[in-house]
Amino acid sequence: MKDLIEFLRIPSVSASPEHAGDVRRASEFVHDWLAAAGLEHVAIIEGRGHPLVYADWLHAPAKPTLLLYGHYDVQPPDPLEEWISPPFEPAVRDGNLYARGAADDKGQLYILMEAVRRVLRERGKLPVNVRFLIEGEEESGGDHIEEYVKARAGELSADAAVICDTAMFAPDLPTLTIGLRGIVYGEIHVEGARTDLHSGDYGGAAPNAVEAAAQIIAALKDRDGHIRIPGLYDRVRPPSDAERSTWKRLPFNAEVYRKTEIGSTALAGEPEIPLFERIWARPTLEVHGIRGGFTGEGSKTVIPARSVTKISLRLVPDQRPDEVIGELESAIAAAAPRGVKATFKLLSSAPASMVDPSNPFVRKAAQAMQKVFGNETVYVRCGGSIPIVGLFEEKLHAPSVMMGFGLPDDNIHAPNEKMSVRNVERGIESVIAYFDLASAAD
Amino acid sequence: MKDLIEFLRIPSVSASPEHAGDVRRASEFVHDWLAAAGLEHVAIIEGRGHPLVYADWLHAPAKPTLLLYGHYDVQPPDPLEEWISPPFEPAVRDGNLYARGAADDKGQLYILMEAVRRVLRERGKLPVNVRFLIEGEEESGGDHIEEYVKARAGELSADAAVICDTAMFAPDLPTLTIGLRGIVYGEIHVEGARTDLHSGDYGGAAPNAVEAAAQIIAALKDRDGHIRIPGLYDRVRPPSDAERSTWKRLPFNAEVYRKTEIGSTALAGEPEIPLFERIWARPTLEVHGIRGGFTGEGSKTVIPARSVTKISLRLVPDQRPDEVIGELESAIAAAAPRGVKATFKLLSSAPASMVDPSNPFVRKAAQAMQKVFGNETVYVRCGGSIPIVGLFEEKLHAPSVMMGFGLPDDNIHAPNEKMSVRNVERGIESVIAYFDLASAAD
Questions:
Q1: Which listed residue, of A122, A350, B100, B313, carries a Cα 20 to 30 Å from B38's Cα?
Q2: Residue ranges in A152-198 assigned as alpha helix (H)
Q3: Who among B214, B264, B298 is closest to A192 (CB)?
């Protein structure tokens, strides 16, 4: 663990310009480590944004090639005062390693790196071919890796991508993530009067751009979480019976989830749809904030002339982002009240992605984890989006094998991030077992 | 005009702590000016906030006493770059005096002060008794004057209050404002999850506090501007036939108003109600802004856990603020979606006020203005709130005579504020004529 602790000491916060040197130092750490482990073609790849690290070992002819993905950058550690031990001074307590990046993603990237090093040291060779492709701006939305994969798809041939950046559903329950939601993220811009006006003089005559945003939001989604955008559900593919039955058997207490994870008086969302289907397999619409008017202390009687609403839709198979954008634009225009102009400005979009659970590379990952953990591997989905997964599928035609060894309470993106020490070791053993299984003919 | 120009040079911005010395200097200017004009008991009255200036002349036994109100503070001048001549360097162009405070309210306060000085100088006495009560925090919401009037009501006896702080409906059209809307201003606080959550992980399970605010707003007011708060319209007193017929005859072009004053593609508000009734005699609800979630540049996929919505209702006769607050609280609670707690936090309230147009002090003001301007005086209302009017009514039992000499295009609270030089002189003549008419028996 000594190497991991050294890796975690580097405050490689990719979103902070003042940490640019640390981010580079982390890329060099990975580069030097992989070179020392016996990887070849080890390179720091420069581009717009933070560098990528590439390395490969391609001496297993006729065996599959695995693309091993991870990221060496971390989230900002704020609020610092809530950390029990400082975020960049790794500390072990109760079998957990506490540090920013312990689970997301240095600890899990280390699992991939250490698995390769251990096999090379012990056997002198790997049972499969591997390529590492490691990025440094996953937490800051950079697109260096996207540009690289698009430009170099021909040189990155792989049979499957292995991503260690997700979590297990519960302790001791090996988990493969086989579905991710897509996203359409943008802004609703509303324009009303020529300028903010006084509500005494003009209340009853002037349109209100914040109220108009509220009317539009209320028209797009009803009080029960049903999206009211015509056509939006048309292509939604329901989860298979197998998935539904797996999800029903997951160890889960909705009341504990409501109290400890959400902390609200009730759960939201479509009441007639089971929870896992709501968060994994149903499109959802969320407003992230509204800018406009007066929000300071005290009273100001302004009728806002402009508003900007941050909004996103999470997409599921088989929704198409371009279609959804068109439907959303039409719904916004139709919902705009008299006197305002409302338009949608797209910021980003990505389709949902699904891995076929019967794909041999996925099945073998499940077998490998089951062997190490002693429990049957469950297949779940993730409500979030990992755009790189769609890219590997589209450009490399490689299914993503998301073997995650984090735990739900790892506090990623929050103070006191941790990683189970035992899961690091079990993760390494699982990846090694996977190499052997992937190497064998079906 | 020399004195007015000197008065306008003082940047008495009451909302800016760095102008505190200037605000005091303006109070001293008024004090010294009134003392030099022959007023008595001239005093700067200290209290919480900026000082009041008091002065009187009470040597007309058996004649009415008029309380003359104005304010010597001004709005901030920002944005400075939009001023053609600097805001505190008064300049005359095309018959208008340009300066911050030219119309609101130094120029109009000067009308009252100069009318008194001119009569005292020319006749050695006034035909009525007068008390000046002038404040320095009208533009910053201070309550020094309110506390003073409440505490000293017994010493401030007056038959009517004269307020020169409103505008004429159109050039050459003498105008008396006889109605003001009241207000209930507060915040809707919404609480959802324990903290902001990631919309990928929790979209479909966690309540969204900004969306809940939008749902509540949409429930409180429909797309056509009808307020949907049960009971809210019950006490609304429709304008009299006389008022309605006056309003119909006002010189007004709705299309020009929409284009130049509002600048939107259509007017808002209850479509079946005529415009003047909407803005003067109907309750309206406006949202001033929503705080919560992410509103910066770029994309952040947060589900906001908290939101604060600034909201106000304008009230008309005979609505009662306490009743309205109760109705609003109930409507907010009823509109809150599953999983959130929504409460209303009151910041301020004031009832609407109406002056009886048949009151002799009001009628005589109309006659005085008509004599000077040569046109029949129109009675209008104002959609805004001037809390001091309700206070004079309640504590002094004095009707407010709102003789305004500003014009609709005076740019009060905006760059290039101005006052018609001719209206300053006509205002002085109107006030002098009013003193004489008020002095005569009915």
A1: B100
A2: none
A3: B264
CB-facing half-sphere around the CA of B191: CA atoms within 13 A? 7
The domains of chain B, with CATH numbers, are 2-180+352-439 (3.40.630.10), 182-236+283-347 (3.30.70.360)
- The structure tokens listed for A219 are 């028209």
E strand or H helix that includes residue A312: strand A306-315
Tell me, yes or no, if A138 is annotated catalytic. yes
> How many CB atoms within 10 Å of residue A318?
12
A199 and B284 within 8 Å at the Cβ level: the answer is yes
How many CB atoms are located within 10 Å of the residue A281 CB?
A: 26
3-state secondary structure of B256: helix
Q: Is B291 helix (H, G, I), strand (E, B) or coil?
A: strand
Q: Which two tokens stand for residue A251?
A: 């160890």
Other CB atoms within a 10 A radius of the CB of residue B237 amount to 12
- As given in the structure block, the two tokens for residue A11 are 């405050």
Q: Which of B193, B215, B266 is facing A264, going by the closest CB pair?
A: B193
Q: Indicate which residue of A138, A139, A196, A243 is catalytic.
A: A138
Q: pLDDT 10s per residue in chain A (442 long)? A: 899 999 999 999 998 999 999 999 999 999 999 999 999 999 999 998 999 999 999 999 999 999 999 999 999 998 899 899 999 999 999 999 999 999 999 999 999 999 999 999 999 999 999 999 999 999 887 889 999 999 999 999 999 999 999 999 999 999 999 999 999 999 999 999 999 999 999 999 999 999 999 999 999 999 999 999 999 999 999 999 999 999 999 999 999 999 999 999 999 999 999 999 999 999 999 999 999 999 888 888 899 999 999 999 999 999 999 999 999 999 999 999 999 999 999 998 999 999 999 999 999 999 999 999 999 999 999 999 888 898 999 999 999 999 999 998 899 988 999 999 999 999 999 999 999 999 997 7
Give the closest residue to B327 by CA, choosing from B233, B250, B253, B430: B233
Within 8 A by CB and 6+ apart from B169, the residues are B175, B250, B251, B378, B380, B408
Q: Which residue from A199, A201, A287 is facing B208, i.e. has the nearest CB?
A: A287
Active-site residue identified among B22, B73, B114, B410: B73
Which residues of chain B lie closer than 8 angstroms to A208, CB-CB? Answer: 268, 286-287
Q: Do A262 and B314 touch (CB under 8 A)?
A: no
Q: Which amino acid is at A76?
A: P
- Residue indicated by tokens 């009525």: B128
> What pTM was estimated for this model as a whole?
0.90
Contact A156, A391 (CB under 8 A): no
Active site residue B143: no
Taking an 8 Å cut-off on Cβ atoms, the answer to whether A265 and B341 are in contact is yes
Host H or E run for residue A132:
strand A129-135
Distance from CA of B347 to the nearest CA of A (A): 7
Strand partners, A17: none
Q: By C-alpha distance, which of B190, B59, B175 is closest to B126?
A: B59
- Sheet bearing A418-420, strands edge to edge: A91-93, A96-98, A418-420
Mutate to test the interface with B, among A278, A295, A314 (most CBs of B within 10 A): A295
Nearest CA to A440 out of A373, A372, A363, A375 is that of A363
b (16+ CB within 10 A) / e for A18-45: ebeebbbebbebbbebbeebbbeebeeb
- The token pair at A427 is 């993760």
B121 HSE (CA, 13 A, CB side): 11
Distance CA A251, CA A254 (A): 10
**Largest separation between any pair of C-alpha atoms in chain A:** 83
What's the gap in Å between the CA of B18 and the closest CA on chain A?
A: 19
Q: Using the 8-state DSSP alphabet, how is residue B261 labeled?
A: I
ipTM of this complex prediction, to 2 decimal places: 0.90
Considering the candidates B135, B137, B138, B327, report the single residue annotated as catalytic. Answer: B138
